[in-house]
Amino acid sequence: MWLAGLEWPGERGLSGHSDGDAVAHAICDALLAAAGLGDIGGMFGTADPRFSGAHGEVFLAETVRRLAAAGWRVGNVSVQVVGNRPKLAPRRAEAEALLTGIVGAPVSVAATTTDGLGFTGRGEGVTAIATALIVPASGRA
Ligand SMILES: Nc1ccn([C@@H]2O[C@H](COP(=O)(O)O)[C@@H](O)[C@H]2O)c(=O)n1
Ligand SMILES: C[C@@]1(CO)OP(=O)(O)OP(=O)(O)OC[C@H]1O
Question: Which pTM value belongs to this model?
Answer without folding.
Answer: 0.96
